[in-house]
From TrEMBL:
Residues 185-216 are annotated as: Disordered. Residues 185-209 have a biased composition (Basic and acidic residues). This is SEC-C metal-binding domain-containing protein. SUPFAM superfamilies: Sec-C motif, TPR-like. It comes from the Bacteria. InterPro entries: SEC_C_motif, TPR-like_helical_dom_sf.
Amino acid sequence: MEASREWLRKEQRILALLHGPEPDYDQAVGLLDELAAAPGARKVCDMAALYSELADAYAGAGRLEEAIVAKQRALQAGLRSVPDGRADIAEYLLRLGRREEADQLFATLAEEYPDDVWLYNNAGMAYQAAGDHEVALRWLTRGLELALATGDPEGLVAQLSDLRRESLAALGRPCDDLERRADSFLEEHDRTDDPDHLDRYPLAEHQEPGETSLLPVGGRQRVQPAVAWFPPDELEAALARWPQWREVPEKRSYEAHRRAVQNALVRLKELGQSPALAPIAVDELVEWARREGRDPSRPESVAAYAALISARGMAVPWPPGRNEPCWCGSGRKYKKCCGGPAAGRPDMLP
């Protein structure tokens, strides 16, 4: 048990080193190597996710060769993501000017995953960022056509359409029939996505892992979901106060917690709701629970407190824009953090 806690402390230290105001990549790599060499650590820590975090941090700092090596190690450690993690490597290659290698890798991925709309989305963004709007347009067109043909299960029509219009404008071309089809699809979706159908979802008494609370709002019979979120310092305080939480996979570390919160948010959005984040301060939760005669460590208590935060108008809107800072506090853009495709696919989360 003590070894497991030490490994988890190292995991948290690695994340802090990578995403702090002054990242220390060398120290983070050293701790990662220690975890990789420790028997049993892989059963406690998500090494694939940690190496992927390292790759993202390197990429954000422009250290792309190192980002490629880190992403390769993540894949070797069993990284599961949508699109395949090699799509990030292709992006890094493109940014390095190694165009032929990037083109070949993206083409290989398209052959292996012809129905992965996330791949087309990511490739389109990569080529767009590289200034090649002609190639970006081809990828985005394939992605948008696929999303429309399948009914947009990934919720990407709006983003693909926005990106595609950027490339069309950059090329001096007008919106075309595909964009008109996207507009019609989104208009129809808006009409049928009536929030009043949410009447069938009752107030929850016990909800995990995101502690989602549903509240009537505006005197109407509709619900406003609020997903409880413990910022890093507050989660650390909660784990110190309630050590039993370390046995809950969704709370054993901030990395696991933020993934669980994103998972809950995505699931609620798939149900047609408009969820928000309810930041939890442990001391305030404990004081509220004392007044209410509740056990603050219970999921239903956290859910009820999240509902109160939402009712007071203190919840944080979600999702942020794809180029805005991520809600989790990593300092990275949302599209490169919790809003990345793996985070948006609950079935792909470890």
